Amino acid sequence: MPRRRSVKLGLTIDHIATVRQARGGSEPDLIEAALEGIRGGANGITVHLREDRRHIQDEDVFRLKRAISVPLNLEMSINEGIVRVAAKLKPAKACLVPERREELTTEGGLNVVGEKGRIAAAVDRLQEKGIEVSLFVDPIPKQIQAAFDVDSNFIELHTGGYANAKGLIRKRELKRLREAAFLAHSLGIGVNAGHGLNYENVKPVARLPYIQELNIGHSIISRCVFVGIRKAVQEMCELIKHV
Fold first, then answer.
1. Per-residue pLDDT for the chain (243 aa), expressed as one digit of tens each?
2. Where are the domains of the chain?
3. Which residues are catalytic?
4. Which residue, 85, 90, 123, 238, shows the most beta carbons closer than 10 Å to its own?
5. Could you say which architecture CATH assigns to the domain 8-238?
6. Under 8 Å CB-to-CB from 126, ≥6 apart: which residues?
């Protein structure tokens, strides 16, 4: 069994911007939300610059990079305009995700096998700017092998199937995640995970071998309505950092 390490938390703050965009203006302040999350123990800040700019805006990502002391992880599609923004921004990390305009949130992993050429080109372009690249993939061996083929630094395992399941199906999904983590590690790819994780279901994923970072947003932002961002992050960190 591999030696366990402390799992990092990437705090996704998209839905702070969702609330702001509902009325326009500048409240709630995205920068203060990020700083409060960092004070609570977040090891990184994640934002998704969507093609339709429904929450995070271009100005936000540049302001965040200047303001925070932890790595900025930019979730992004392989759309040319988004890649161009990322190349200019030079975040510490970029996670390539699939994106459809009509979806409420990201609904599944990248089809790396089917779009290997376009994804490889985006990976190369970002890495040339010194950006560490991750691919958001379902726990499917052929997709993980394809992530290796395009020289991705990391994969981020899509945990939505696990998070949405119950009972024996959830156990089966957790087993798939475990096997995917072992495969990625054997190929020399770093392993992160995220999507649908909350205070009730996160521990088994945090305990998986080789997981380095969990990117969590909706459940923490929901919790912060009642206790504040700093405490909501502290509570999540207690669950994942020493499993």
1. 445 568 999 999 999 999 999 999 999 999 999 999 999 999 999 999 999 999 999 999 999 999 999 999 999 999 999 999 999 999 999 999 998 655 545 568 999 999 999 999 999 999 999 999 999 999 999 999 999 999 999 999 999 999 999 999 999 999 999 999 999 999 999 999 999 999 999 999 999 999 999 999 999 999 999 999 999 999 999 999 866
2. 8-238
3. 48, 75, 195
4. 123
5. Alpha-Beta Barrel (3.20)
6. 83, 86, 87, 94, 133
